[in-house]
Amino acid sequence: MALEAFDNGFELRLGGQSILRHSADAPCLFIGSGDAHVEGLRGHYHIEDHLIERIALRHAEVAGDRVRLAAHPGAPWRIELVFSADDDDAEIHFLSLDPSINRLWFRVPGEAGEHIWGGGEQFSHFDLAGRRFPLWVSEPGVGRDKSTLLTWQCDQRGGGAGGDYYHTNFPQPTFVSARRYALHVDSSAYAAFDFRNPAYHEIEIWGVPDRIELFARPHFTDLVGALSTRFGRQPPLPAWLLKGAVIGLKDGAKSFDRLKVYEDAGVAVSGLWCEDWIGLRETSFGSRLFWDWQWNAQRYPDLPARIAELKDRGIRFLGYVNPYLAVDGPLYAAAAKAGYLVMRPDADEPYVIDFGEFESGHVDFTNLAAAAWFAEEIIGRNMIDFGLSGWMADFGEYLPTDVRLHNGEEGMRAHNRWPVLWGAVNATGVAGRGMTGESMFFMRSGYSGVQAHSPMLWAGDQSVDFSRHDGIGTVITAALSSGLLGNAYHHSDIGGYTSLFDTIRTPELAMRWVEMAAFTSMMRTHEGNRPRANTQYDDSPELLAHFARMTRIYAYLAPYLRKLSDEAVATGLPCQRPLFLHFEEDAKTYAIQTAYLYGADLLVAPVIEAGRSDWTTYLPAGVDWVHVWSGAMHQGGQEVTVPAPFGQPPLFYRAGSADAALFSGIAAF
Amino acid sequence: MALEAFDNGFELRLGGQSILRHSADAPCLFIGSGDAHVEGLRGHYHIEDHLIERIALRHAEVAGDRVRLAAHPGAPWRIELVFSADDDDAEIHFLSLDPSINRLWFRVPGEAGEHIWGGGEQFSHFDLAGRRFPLWVSEPGVGRDKSTLLTWQCDQRGGGAGGDYYHTNFPQPTFVSARRYALHVDSSAYAAFDFRNPAYHEIEIWGVPDRIELFARPHFTDLVGALSTRFGRQPPLPAWLLKGAVIGLKDGAKSFDRLKVYEDAGVAVSGLWCEDWIGLRETSFGSRLFWDWQWNAQRYPDLPARIAELKDRGIRFLGYVNPYLAVDGPLYAAAAKAGYLVMRPDADEPYVIDFGEFESGHVDFTNLAAAAWFAEEIIGRNMIDFGLSGWMADFGEYLPTDVRLHNGEEGMRAHNRWPVLWGAVNATGVAGRGMTGESMFFMRSGYSGVQAHSPMLWAGDQSVDFSRHDGIGTVITAALSSGLLGNAYHHSDIGGYTSLFDTIRTPELAMRWVEMAAFTSMMRTHEGNRPRANTQYDDSPELLAHFARMTRIYAYLAPYLRKLSDEAVATGLPCQRPLFLHFEEDAKTYAIQTAYLYGADLLVAPVIEAGRSDWTTYLPAGVDWVHVWSGAMHQGGQEVTVPAPFGQPPLFYRAGSADAALFSGIAAF
Asked: What biological process terms from GO does the record include (chains A, B) (predicted)?
């Protein structure tokens, strides 16, 4: 047992290090109560705590693997911790001895200069040190950088669409420390990780968690493997996906004609993705999808035949679904009749919310019958049986907190785990048709455990720009942070999605994004929220040629991506990896969030600034690196600057790699 | 004794009402500790608390007038309260029994719909209900409304010059409740008033206060009188001031020529205010004053003779001073040599800070010798003896928190009371020359007790616009909130001060501001921070004529203002009063912050929006009101709309007022 008692304190050691320490002077636990004020609007939440009490539990009594804690000797016991641990792993079970506790703060020692990663899929900061991260499933917001005019516009003129550095569709109360251990909070309550104080890390939880889990490993790769085992692994990538890009078009039947233009230009195509397969509704904001999950024959006449034709050419058809049902669609009526909808707290009627000139209800996934209905009738019959090979499984962040749920769970607890339930519904539908590893759906929302269900993440709705906290670069941070927590596959809307105010996707941005996407698990374009106002890849022969070439490079690397996929299945390592994962002796790699290893041997440093013709990146120490386009050899342990004209994203492979021939072949494209 | 014990609780009754109540279920006191993080730059502070503990003291033991409190029975006593009270007033002395306490929260019961006022000089919200107000002396910021583009520009492009609704030069931990009692915290520690919860008001103090004082009175006027007695009253207004406007010009010797233009246009002039009397320094931002407090003979040749000439015409000369000394001036050298400067914590050298391309030290007013030196040598000799009849006593908000002070006080405690020390230095200098009530200095910074020293407030640096949280309207809110706490005299820079980005003072704004200022204690113009880019009152004959007419109305009302001044001396009532002060039976008046009573009988509702030709205001119930310009009679208890062309600010007097003849005479101008 790694738990050691000492005078009025205790210590937990894992992997030969002190991970948890408690004494009267430096208590590890604080308990208390607060009064939460939550306002939500379209996935954006304003959450304020009116704190009532916060009490340090300074007095500990250790008995074997159990520790009871009180404010001081003689005061009532408030919490009991039950430890189970071996040399590397520990679980701390929390037993509340006081029903009034609804806030808990847990501290573990910090070290000066310690890097911290994780927190789910983070868009702004890969290294979490020095900041506080609330962990609540939400829209990330557009305008996540308070210093930009766009943020101000989104905050003030965009109906509260702005965000902040910590907002994410996929938070997770798990962190990885550079001390080579990870900590996970097993709770779906509102939580916050506070890394502002160098002396400790403080975890705030709005409730008593079931347990806190600790993992220590000698190497980061082992640690990532342990986490992926804990949260679940994804199936291998389907073979069809690796043939090229999934082309996102939403032009109704015209999409098929436009796809031909792509094919004729030599684009390697794996799929056609039409999110408007379910039809449209017109609003004053423009066309919106009709949220009733079945084929719309007006917008896509003869779709079954068209899908069959595509398939004959080796191209799959993908669609769209989300967990809401528009009140004016037949599925809503059916769900309401069956009692499958989330209910209002104050009335015996479904809880519908406004999504912008139309209202939708939420299917209550805590009702197993409702979840099974969605999985079977919608995912299984309306989508897979109909012929879809994949879909965007959108949203998951909008569950209000004042809902009435079938299982009696509070909205404040259900909210964060809703994306996991949503992922499970999709995965169950897929499994029910025996299509696991073949149907490819992709999710943006997530929480602890979504890893076992979501076969592919997508990075949500980036701005169509190069901005630091909203644009192209956030995709890398998102891939690296989520990848450490067991999400092996990650990709993004190529070219970004959100065009607000004056932000417009330029040809330059479009090309830089493709150059990055070719070295991720999946290439998929999106026309964005304002297709006509933004650059599309079929706008010009030049753009199309550039795009085609990058898709062919993606297809060319299919054998390598297959290897990475096999590795992900076997070990849990993600396809896109932070540099330090394979270079843990090189501390200079620890905070890098603008470059990544695609597998162990290929270093990708996408150009994520406008107006650049060259690019500078750090190459990890200890090995030599070959610049793919020039063949020039660079010693690791230094920054190098290389030319980066369009079509030549900064790429380096490890000298002596088993795949060196494959990598050097990229230059021939 | 108004303190009554009951089973594990107690209650304090004042004025026949329950003011304080404690029970184990609803404790009145929480104690704890926190770790403050304060960053300051040019009077703007970012203050963050890393809270360690917050413990409810649920268990109370009452013995006579003493109450001891602990977390629960058997736990150590943490605080002892000693009550002294009569039927109307109470003092609660706090004795800390635990030296680790550095945070304290005190709750008093709230009532639904209860209005709350005070908090010092507030610019955004007169009624404090529903919001939390940190109380820390600071720049108010320009751009105090997060919804405006100007705020975003100031926050992000203006070097952190933006602010928020609660930022003020003059906070004060005193509130007045509509339940007709006031509460004051006797402490200069960082504090916050939290009125978000309708059930209670929570007062946060970063330390254990000496005492909390409570005042209950049957009428609001009595309550304001009691507060003005507590915090100190101001001397009567000097006779010379009431003759007309103080004209602010900073054109060096040319100011005298420009003053002639004003006089020739029929402006009633009481003084010429030249803040540049101490000379200028050139920076890349433009001309700045040279912060060394003595006559600059280059910029103002023969100034003593010019001052004497002015005085012969019945016009006074006013100057400028602030508590800092530029490092390149002779006074700094003298102060440094004498050991009169605030010192760095980490080195034996003066604590100088950057004010924008020049550095200044702070005279250490906790050193009585230094304060006496400033009062005698600067205020007395360099200013009063030299011939100044008044001055702007600027700043007071910039004391850093990590300073080393002569009296050993911590910067966190000294910061808030610095304006009081600054006011005392000025008042002492004036009193030393026997000029109290004759020399007129005006301050923007303040804190509890500055009332006894500062003979006149000025509302700081408004934006030269009509904006809700930065512009002309904030002056009324400032006068009303500060007036309730014993500040009888209030005025503002006519036309506003701050011109940033695209904000420019228009002729319309200039005229509307004058129309308001004529009905305040003092009329004083300011050219603003960018004189050349902004409208000045001598820009055109039309503007000058409008201005001249309003100054003559001010001078015409001198007998009335003299009466208000006498009333202020006798009773502590401010010249500008919230409507409810005299109409406490009319609940509709309680939250009005756009109109005021100038004395008991004249209601002023300045036009504080652009593009208006009429104006709507509420007239209190129970009396009839005469519209000054038309003579029309309006019944109270309703909103009325009146024409409001330039030159006819909405003015109403109480029918039957003893001053009715005077008021009706305004229409003849």
From this structure: carbohydrate metabolic process
